[in-house]
Amino acid sequence: MRVAAIDCGTNSIRLLIADVSGGSLTDVARRMEIVRLGEGVDSTGRLAPEAIERTRQALLGYAAEIAELGVDRVRMCATSASRDASNAEDFRSMVRSVLGVDPEVITGEEEARLSFTGAVHGLNAEPPYLVVDIGGGSTEFVVGFEKVDHAVSVDIGCVRMTERHLRGDPPSPAEVAAAEQDITRAVDGALRKVSGHGTMTLIGLAGSVTTVAALALHLPKYDSGRIHHARIAYDDVATVTADLLGATVADRRDLAVMHPGRADVIAAGALILRIIMQRAGKASVIASEHDILDGIAFSLA
Questions:
Q1: Has this prediction a pTM greater than 0.85?
Q2: pLDDT tens figures, 203-252
Q3: Beta bridge partners of 252
Q4: Among 68, 81, 270, 285, which residue's Cα sits nearest to residue 179?
Q5: What residue stretches are annotated with the Ppx/GppA phosphatase N-terminal domain (predicted)?
Q6: Of 54, 162, 192, 249, whose CB neighbour count within 10 A is largest?
C-alpha cells in the first residue's frame, strides 16, 4: 500500500510518501517546508492569514506530488498551533479545499503515541525509552517499551519560547534566564507525570534535535543518514546550545547544516533539549529522523 502522511506543526509542514509492506516502510518521498503556521498564536490566540496562506502554498505542492505518485491513502495530522487557535476552522477549510481530506487536529496524547511509534521502530537501544518530540509550540514526553505507557504534551516549543522570551538578537542573559525558568518548570512537571527519570534511553525527535545533532557532529552539511540514531553527549548539547544562544540569527543562518527557516528559533529548541537532558539526568540523547510522520504512515496500514 502506498500512503501519504502529512504532519503540520507550529513551525513546519512535512510530507512522507511511503510504501508499507510487512510492517516496514520504504520511503518514496520526504519533504519539509518551514511555514510558521503558529506565528503569533501564543500572544494572539489566532492563526495569521499570511501563515495560513504559506501553508496553503506548501500543501498545493504536496497535493500535486500525492496525485503524481499514485497514493492509496492520505492522512494529515495538525498539531499544536491548530489546537490552540480560535480560528482553526479557517485552517481546516483551507486544507479540505486543497487536499480533499480533513486535517485531524490531534490531541497531544495522540501526537505522542504516533511519535513514539515512528521513533522506536527499528531502534537498537535499551528500553524503557523516553521519547521527546520538541516542536514549535509544544513538546511531547512519551515513556514506554514497545508501546506507550505514559504520555504528556506541554506548551513549550522552539517558536513559543522564542516569541515569549528570546526576543533579543542574540537574546540577553535575562531573557535566557526567564526561558530557562519557564522550560524547567514545564519539563519537571512532564517528567513527573510520565515517570521519565526511570527510563534507560532518551530519544530526541524533530528539527531542533536533529539540527543540534548535526552541529555537535561537526557535519559539513546536513546529512540525515549520519544524524539518524547518532548518540550525542550532554556536554556536546550544552556546548552547541551556548553557542547558538550567543549567536545572532544571521550567524546561525550561515551555519552549513542550518535550514534558513529554523535559524531564529533553533536556540530555544536547543535550550529545551539541554534542560530535558539535565532534569532527566541523561548523559546522552539518540537523535532520530523517524518520528510522527512515520507513525502516521504506519497508522494508515
A1: yes
A2: 999 999 999 999 999 999 999 999 999 999 999 999 999 999 999 999 99
A3: none
A4: 270
A5: 16-299
A6: 162
